[in-house]
Design brief:
heterodimer; A: 808 residues; alpha+beta; Aldehyde Oxidoreductase, domain 3; Aldehyde Oxidoreductase, domain 4; 4 domains; 7-stranded mixed β-sheet; 19 helices; 32 strands; globular; B: 327 residues; Uridine Diphospho-n-acetylenolpyruvylglucosamine Reductase, domain 3; Enolase-like, domain 1; 5-stranded antiparallel β-sheet; 31% helix
Chain lengths: 808, 327
């Protein structure tokens, strides 16, 4: 069958509604009689909860209720452990999951203590200030290293320490490899945490309808079906009594897959109790505490290399900060552990991690989900190793790439989905070559802005100076190039489903259980189905994120929507196509092989007058009267499921040219290139959009975003005035190129791409900046992320004073 | 949800009516123009006046024109309008630069130069929600008795964070201030005091009406430099305005320099004339001026970003400004 839409660069079906402001988001759902919730939150990071006095709040006109943990009775339960730990030998793991409202103790700033419900949010917020909370301060521990130190305040007392987990995964024999190495290079690295900063904060609207005994919940979740299942179970309702709708969502990025947030548990319960709809929309300040965060890790890493730059082994020992609770199990540290290996042949590997509880907001995956840190460590070790061995940075990577015939490649450790870490397919050198070509990388060194040598001039009058745009003053700008590789495990199971139905209008309805947060599902899924059914892409109406429409599924996360749900859509469309041809064959009395399906019409090859439209076929498949043969199903409809054996391994190379102002340490990204492989591409426009967004996200992580948290666990920059996101002026145009190594693990050959753009940016930034400064600040090493102008300035000063050569 | 407190919004027809309102509600009133700083601050409960008096539509506060060898800029002119105005670009380009580097396009269209001059000082421990400040135990500037920047400090050191005052100081500009008692003018260099809580020599019932800038004499050159992490949005981590007059032989005859975002008021950088006047702006003279400026400037921990870097950037900005002027 000829493919018309799959692989085509077509505009998104959903954009008209989104761009004209007509798309429905949770806060757009306005129900008569809605009450509004506001939370009483802990202003301490660690404390004993002695009591809550809500008497004054309850007296405020318009307040309908104030609820504390005690009011919840049996309903008060810690949240589920979402991902049980992988069966790693010798594993230690302690699950301590978040609670709906604090009871006895608070463990991070912003943890909810009580919820106030009132006729308006204004009244509810005023009433929050009426609630008197008796908190006895406890010593807090906000730093992950301090949390594991002897004598640290213990956050979950029954554990006796803050150790949440400890695991070791190994491959081969690192120590033996180390003994034979020509170069052993060790460094300490830090990767700090940030927020996901979705444009839309979280929100929940719960409506209990007493008459029909139905609960409807509009939720900004990435996982409406698991939320429905959990709520039904907790509230003692049938799943058929609970409908969860995840409408348009302004960015998910991972934290919206977390469950259950306190609000998600509380609002349905309150709505049932008060028999009124209840809404809560998170504000930006709350988002800095009440939505999950990520990326805090400390690494002690070591690489053993031969003199020609071959990796003999890698050892990495790290601490992962999980915040006050660990509902996501070991997903993040295992992702770090696995992704560190990258596209390289690493014969010997020792990876050990500890997970620590701290008095900070909960940590769960954010776009990249532990992979950033792993890529940063490996790429840094290769950069520093290349420098030490006098090798070119691209060349050391090339020498260690897995060869195209090495697939499937088994890394002999377990991945986050409990399956062995096996790469399905890949071909890494062409991506490197393409990136080198596009960025203009020359193996001997960086591209030069002007002829005349690389030595920066003291006076700004000569050398590699660029011309300052404004005025005629000349400023030194040192250029550097970076080029890094990464892989990304994507598209993990367990499964997703889709239902395709041709309606009497001839148009197609496609329903899937995943939710959508801007990924372009309304278009890419429609493309897959349109090709099978011979209809226009805009004739496929896609429904996502509504549990009333589709019962089964897990959610949109881990770069799996296109891979898992996409293949389910494909399978359902193939089944419907078969039904169409069978039915048409009966009606037209022509063999199926002689039928063509184009432009919504089934035609007979060579007989232009003999045809039947899809709408007519749909009608005839669903007769109002007459006998139907036993064993047949009505309609042109099929439901299919897809579950991959394991994840598909996407990969890529990012390259960039930066110019650094050596005096101010301000960095400007001049050019950015992404060459990536996400298997077969459904829609290049959407893939590029995902990559652009990811790169912007990564630039923020690498250079701007930092949570300034003090030792008491208090955040000093909980607003976008002080928590710096990259703006349009900080994100360069991005050039992309696609390499396709189809995944053998799914019929469409797709690999995921949602997180790809964000993963290697910090590693790239570090390398490019070092390259730019290699003569101005010899020996400068970037080992901590985020970098910022002031941090980079300190590194430059240190290196110029001679302190940068000593390593960690 | 950060919410505004209840207040009455007055939109007077003229300046006299505005002054009357400010006087009548003294103690419980604030003037508002673009509101770009005041509204977020009210949401943080830093100000909770029962009355707001709108200034942005008052004719007396409008206009950009040259009168009697002076450039008069109405206080309610937007930063956007000023940054693109031909007379500003012709006579005082550094002011256009400073205005164009405040915040973002949207806020420059709302924000006014009067508001920028009267911008409240900023501090890590002050520009926070009520929830946060309460947890900290408040601070000297608002509701509390201790300073978290200077332990044991009894004087608020919140940072002056506006971009236009240093330029106005370097150009010997003055401000026209109206009160119920009448109109007075004050050099911008005398407008500010070192009190971070209220750093302007203005009564709360007075209104800044206009800025008067003497038309630069021939040979006057100027530069504005701003340090900020991103290329837009951010308040300055440091800013600097320099105005220098040079004779036909390229010798400096006058040098005026002002800097801000260090402490609670913008300040003239003194003693730099000694190093520059009578000399051409050679690299060594420029370095001497930069060194003199560096010695005088000591940033405080009132902004999240490290003081070491901010201080080290003082001579860098000075050198850049002087090179721009010398070019």
């Amino acid at each position: 069958m000829s493919s018309r839409y799959f692989g085509a660069r077509i505009r998104r079906n959903e954009d008209e509604a989104l761009l004209t402001g007509r798309a429905t988001f949770v806060d757009d759902v306005q129900l008569p009689g809605t009450l509004h919730a506001a939370f009483v939150r802990s202003d301490l990071a660690h404390g004993l909860l002695r009591g809550v006095d809500a008497a004054a709040a309850l007296e405020r006109p318009g307040v309908m209720g104030v609820f504390t943990a005690a009011d919840l009775g049996e309903y008060w339960q810690p949240g589920p452990l979402l991902v049980p730990p992988a069966p790693i030998e010798g594993l230690t793991f302690h699950a301590r999951t978040q609670v709906p409202l604090a009871r006895e103790k608070v463990r991070h700033v912003g943890e909810p203590i009580a919820v106030v419900v009132a006729e308006s949010r204004y009244v509810a917020e005023d009433a929050v200030e009426d609630v008197i909370v008796d908190l006895e301060p406890l010593e807090a521990v906000a730093d992950v290293r301090a949390a594991l130190a002897e004598g640290a305040p213990v956050i979950h007392e029954d554990l006796g320490s803050n150790l949440a987990a400890h695991a070791v995964q190994t491959k081969g024999d690192y120590d033996a490899a180390r003994a034979t190495a020509d170069l052993v290079l060790g460094r300490d690295f830090t990767y700090d945490r940030g927020v996901s900063a979705a444009m839309e904060n979280r929100g929940v609207l719960a409506q209990w309808d007493e008459r029909s005994a139905q609960l409807t919940v509009w939720d900004t979740t990435q996982a409406p079906i698991p939320i429905r299942n959990g709520l039904a179970s907790m509230l003692g309702l049938s799943e058929s009594q609970v409908r969860v709708v995840a409408p348009f969502i302004g960015g998910g990025f991972g934290p919206k897959i977390m469950m259950f947030y306190p609000d998600e548990v509380l609002l349905p319960w309150i709505s049932m109790r008060l028999d009124r709809p209840v809404k809560w929309i998170e504000d930006r300040f709350e988002n800095f505490f009440s939505t999950t965060q990520e990326r805090g890790q400390l690494h002690e890493a070591e690489i053993a290399l031969s003199s020609d730059g071959r990796i003999l082994g890698v050892k990495d020992v790290f601490v992962h900060d999980t915040g006050a609770y660990d509902p996501y199990g070991l997903t993040l540290p295992i992702n770090t552990q696995c992704t560190l290996l990258g596209p390289y042949d690493v014969p010997n590997y020792y990876s050990e991690f500890r997970v620590a509880f701290t008095n900070r907001p909960i940590v769960t995956p954010i776009r990249g989900a532990g992979r950033q840190q792993g890529v940063f460590i490996m790429e840094r070790l290769l950069d520093l190793g290349a420098r030490e061995l006098g090798l070119d940075r691209a060349e050391i990577r090339r020498r260690n790439f897995l060869s195209p015939d090495a697939f499937p490649h088994d890394h002999e450790i377990l991945f986050q989905d409990f399956a062995p870490l096996v790469y399905d397919s890949g071909d890494y050198e062409p991506a490197l070559d393409k990136a080198i070509e596009l960025i203009g990388y020359e193996p001997e060194g960086p591209v030069q802005s002007e002829p005349g040598g690389a030595s920066p001039a003291e006076d700004g009058g000569e050398g590699t100076d660029g011309e300052d745009g404004e005025g005629s003053s000349r400023r030194k700008r040192l250029r550097g190039t970076g080029i890094v590789s990464y892989i990304e495990g994507t598209g993990i199971g367990p499964y997703e489903g889709a239902r395709v139905r041709v309606e009497a209008s001839g148009k197609v309805c496609l329903v899937t259980g995943v939710g959508t947060q801007g990924q372009g599902h309304f278009t890419s899924f429609a493309q897959i189905v349109a090709d099978q059914l011979g209809v226009g892409v805009t004739d496929v109406r896609v429904v996502t994120g509504d549990t009333r429409e589709f019962h089964w599924g897990t959610g949109t996360f881990a770069s799996r929507g296109a891979v898992v749900a996409g293949n389910a859509c494909h399978a359902a469309a193939v089944a419907v196509r078969e039904k169409i041809l069978r039915k048409a064959s009966e009606i037209l009395e022509v063999a199926e092989e002689d039928l063509m399906l184009t432009e919504g019409v089934v035609r007979v090859q060579g007989v232009p007058d003999l045809s039947i439209g899809l709408g007519e076929l749909a009608l005839r498949s669903n007769p109002l009267r007459g006998a139907v043969e036993p064993g047949t199903e009505p309609g042109l409809e099929a439901t299919s499921y897809f579950g991959p054996r394991r994840g598909a391994t996407a990969s890529g190379v990012h390259a960039m040219v930066v110019s650094v102002d050596p005096e101010t340490a301000m960095v400007e990204i001049e050019r950015y290139v992404v060459v990536h492989d996400c298997g077969t591409v459904i829609n290049p426009l959407i893939v590029e959009g995902q990559i652009h967004g990811g790169v912007a996200h990564g630039i923020g992580n690498a250079f701007y975003e930092e949570l300034d948290c003090d030792s008491e666990g208090q955040l000093h920059n909980a607003s976008f005035m002080d928590y710096l996101l990259p703006t349009a002026t900080d994100v360069p145009p991005i050039r992309t190129a696609h390499i396709e190594t189809p995944s053998p693990l799914n019929p469409l050959g797709i690999k995921g791409v949602g997180e790809a753009g964000a993963i290697p940016v910090a590693a790239l930034f570090a390398q490019a900046v070092e390259d730019a400064l290699k003569e101005w600040a010899p020996g400068l090493e970037v080992r901590d992320i985020p970098l910022s102008p002031n941090r980079l300035f300190a590194l430059i000063e240190e290196a110029r004073a001679g302190g940068g050569e000593e390593g960690a | 949800m950060l919410r505004l407190h209840p207040y009455i919004y007055h939109r007077p027809a003229d300046l006299d009516a505005a002054l009357e309102l400010l006087d009548r509600h003294a103690g419980d009133v604030l003037p508002i123009a673009g509101g770009t700083d005041l509204v977020p601050n009210m949401k943080h409960k830093l100000f909770t006046p029962g009355h707001l008096v709108a200034l942005s539509r008052l004719d007396e506060l409008k206009g950009i024109e040259v009168v009697d060898q002076r450039l008069r800029v109405g206080a309610a002119e937007s930063l956007h309008a000023i940054s693109g105005h031909p007379a500003i670009l012709e006579h005082v380009p550094a002011l256009a630069t400073a205005c164009s580097e405040v915040s973002s396009p949207q806020l420059r269209r709302m924000g006014t130069i009067g508001g920028n001059i009267c911008l409240d000082t900023r501090c890590t421990y002050y520009n926070q929600t009520l929830f946060w400040r309460k947890a900290l135990g408040y601070c000297l500037k608002k509701d509390g008795e201790i300073c978290h920047v200077v332990p044991g400090g009894t004087r608020c050191v919140a940072a002056h964070s506006a971009d236009t005052p240093p330029v106005l100081m370097s150009l010997d500009a003055s401000v026209e201030i109206a009160g119920t008692a009448g109109v007075r003018t004050l050099p911008v260099s005398n407008l500010f005091t070192s009190d971070g809580i209220w750093n302007r020599r203005m009564e709360s019932n007075e209104v800044l009406v206009a800025v008067h800038i003497p038309l630069p004499e021939p040979g006057l050159r100027m530069s504005f430099q701003k340090l900020r992490p991103r290329a837009s949005i951010d308040f300055p981590l440091l800013n600097l305005a320099v105005a220098a007059r040079m004779d036909d032989e390229g010798l400096v005859t006058e040098l005026r320099m002002a800097m801000s975002a260090l402490g609670s008021y913008p300040r003239r950088v003194g003693k730099v004339e000694e190093a520059a006047v009578g000399n051409p702006l050679t690299p060594s003279v420029i370095d001497a001026v930069a060194e003199q400026a560096f010695r005088q400037c000591h940033p405080l921990e009132n902004i999240i970003v490290d003081t070491d870097w901010r201080r080290a950037m003082v001579p860098v900005l000075v050198r850049r400004a002087l090179k721009e002027i010398a070019a």
